[in-house]
Design goal:
Oxidized Rhodanese, domain 1; 7 helices
Length: 145
């Protein structure tokens, strides 16, 4: 009796596993197996080359979306600190700089290629302050130094 029970459990688990695998690959509403970025975020992404070209031709405001400790270690020359953690205080401290950026491009950066902090800060600058264009740098900002 014990052997037949174990066999039945094994069959049930095997069938469940097979159903899960088939569902993962063939279900019409299966989740993506890779990172998919929204079209809104892709619209505002800027490459290193384009950022360098833009900085050479126009007066760009650089916004660092990283934590204060990382900003104090190193940042782009002339960049201001503006992150989600200290949003209210930093907005107040940088209000004059942000108001002067109404007529010039803004590039927000943080560490790495998948840093969501820069997307969040850029979205807030567009929606709350009406700044445009506000780009998000693709990749690590240290390559621009």
């Amino acid at each position: 009796m014990k052997t037949s029970t174990l066999r039945q459990i094994g069959i049930i688990l095997s069938l469940s596993l097979a159903a899960a695998v088939l569902s993962a690959f063939f279900h019409p509403k299966r989740p993506a197996w890779y990172f998919v970025e929204s079209s809104e975020n892709l619209l505002w992404k800027i490459s290193f080359e384009d950022a360098q070209t833009l900085a050479e031709t126009e007066d760009v405001l650089w916004v660092d979306a990283r934590p204060r400790a990382k900003f104090e270690e190193a940042h782009m020359p002339g960049a201001i600190l503006l992150n989600d953690d200290e949003w209210g205080d930093l907005m107040f401290q940088n209000m004059d700089t942000l108001q002067s950026a109404m007529s010039r491009p803004v590039i927000v950066y943080c560490d790495g290629t998948r840093c969501a902090k820069s997307n969040d800060v850029a979205t807030q600058l567009r929606e709350l302050l009406g700044l445009e264009p506000v780009y998000v740098l693709k990749g690590d900002w240290k390559l621009l130094k």
